[in-house]
Amino acid sequence: MLGRWLFVGVVAAVIAGVAWFGLPEAQKKVAVGDAALKFSLPDLQGKVQTLPEGDVILLNFWATWCPPCRQEMPSMVELSKKYAAKGLKVVAVSVDRDAKALRDFVAEYQLPFLVLHDIDSAVSAKHGVYRYPETFLIDRQGHVQAHLVGAIEWMTKPMQKNIEDLLDGKDLAAVK
After folding, report:
1. Is 43 helix (H, G, I), strand (E, B) or coil?
2. Is residue 173 part of a domain?
3. Residue 44 gets which letter from DSSP?
4. Which of 157, 120, 127 is nearest to 57 (CA)?
5. Element of type H or E holding 17
6. Residue 90, helix vs strand vs coil
7. What total number of domains does the chain contain?
8. Pick from 111, 71, 118: which is nearest to 95 by CA?
9. Comparing C-alpha atoms, which of 170, 173, 176, 175 is closest to residue 141?
10. CATH code for the domain in which residue 113 is found
11. What is the per-residue pLDDT across 94-138, written as a single tens digit (0 to 9) for each?
12. Looking at the DSSP assignment, which residues form a beta bridge with residue 129?
């Protein structure tokens, strides 16, 4: 009887070991100082787009069903309008499952920037994003200068200063 239990225990341990070591590696979160991840996603017309290069990028992960995301969007629109001509590209990556709700939201808010659709949240997961909204500020060389979680009031003086510093080629010591 003891031999049978010992055998069952060994088999269970082998199965657990195979399962543990067979798991995929956890996604590493994108951190400040890392190179921005390259990805491709469809825009709202279905055309596949990539992250722009050579510009300062505000990469925002959001959803229409997210109240803080909705709260943040008007100031992001203002920021985009103010700094687009100086080299700021806002890229809003939506994790909405409902494409119609997304299109309706974009039309209602008249979003003047690139909106991409991450319908299966694969790109969000690769960035380590699971709370919405989450934003990455990326410099002209393609490095993450800041990672912000939660709704941001983008038109405050400190946030505008951060954007202006990035546009001027300065690193952000800490987002103020």
Report:
1. strand
2. no
3. T
4. 127
5. helix 2-22
6. strand
7. 1
8. 118
9. 170
10. 3.40.30.10
11. 999 999 999 999 999 999 999 999 999 999 999 999 889 999 999
12. none
